[in-house]
Each structure stands twice: as C-alpha cells, then as structure tokens.
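Posting this for the archive.
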Amino acid sequence: MSTHEFTDVLLVLSVRPGLEEPVVDWLLAWRGDHGFSRVAVEEHSARHEEFTAAEQVRGRQNRLQFQVRIPAAQLDDLIDSARREFGGADVGYWVLPLLRSGHLGDERS
C-alpha cells in the first residue's frame, strides 16, 4: 500500500531513552513545518536479546516514542534521514495514515 494515498501520515519512532536528545535535535533540524510529540512508554516483547538484565527481569523495556505528523510525500526523505543519523542504533518505526486532523477550535476541522 502506498502512503501517498493519504495527505498526511504519522511516523512513530521508538528509541531508547539515551537517544532522546539526539532525536529531538534531529527532528527540530528537519525542514518540515510540523511539530512532534514525545511520550515515555514501556515496550513488551518476546525478543529479550535486546533487553538489559534488569529489563529481562521486569519483562519490559523503557522506550520513548516520537510521533511526527508529516505530509506523506515527505515520509521517504524523513526515514532516509533517520537511517543516516541513527542507522546503527536501536530505533524502530511505524507509519500510520491520518484520515483527518485539525484543531477543535477550527470550524473546518
């Protein structure tokens, strides 16, 4: 399925907390005009080889998710840029189509 069927998409990046500042700096430098959100999460996985010993005991891993709403046409460029910056790091991502977005104060949304 092509992401270009949608006007905007939501790119979610999942990173270890140690990458927070580099990812924030990278996203702020990105030429897009949309902001982003950051949320702390605990991820669960059957693949524990990437977990620290403490995370294996707890059964979950602390992560940060960055949520970036961007035009679908910019998605490939942003992912390519992320690969150049963080290709060797433990960064997961997924993309969701945005069917609609806006502000509740706007009558047109």
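The chain has a mean pLDDT of 85. The chain is about 25% helix and 30% strand.
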